[in-house]
Design brief:
Elements lengths: L2 H10 L6 H19 L2 H7 L6 H8 L6 H8 L13 H4 L3 H8 L3 H14 L8
Helix pairs in contact: 2-3, 2-4, 3-4
């Protein structure tokens, strides 16, 4: 196959990451999220675990990081898109803001979200 044609095809149909590359990417992003959240124990508790043991096992590669875990992680305040955007960490809310928001009542969180949505010209959430 002509080299130029090959590169044009590869640009349209990029090579997908193999399983090892996906696992490595997920472990790196989970470790970065743990740091962002204040440690593995803090992330573990935020995900509903007793401590950071299970998170540690996932980061170490002992346990898999499943799609379900990724969804749970990305539902945490300040972690939307964490596993899909490697530049997200640079734009993420500080851990102090995330911790403060996590302590608020749901109605107050919605009020703050709607303030931000108004600033960003996004539609408001329902009460």
């Amino acid at each position: 196959m002509n080299s130029d044609l090959y590169h044009k095809i590869r640009a349209v149909y990029p090579v997908q990451m193999d399983k090892d590359a996906v696992d490595t990417f997920r472990r790196e992003r989970l470790a970065a999220l743990a740091d962002h959240m204040g440690g593995r124990a803090a992330l573990g508790r935020a995900l509903g675990y007793k401590d950071g043991g299970y998170v540690n096992h996932m980061i170490s590669g002992i346990r898999p990081i499943t799609e379900k875990t990724i969804v749970l992680c990305e539902q945490l305040p300040g972690a939307t898109g964490w596993f899909s955007d490697t530049k997200f960490q640079e734009r993420a809310l500080s851990r102090e803001v995330v911790a403060a928001i996590a302590k608020l009542e749901p109605a107050e969180v919605r009020r703050i979200e709607n303030l931000l949505r108004g600033m960003l010209d996004l539609p408001q959430t329902r009460a």
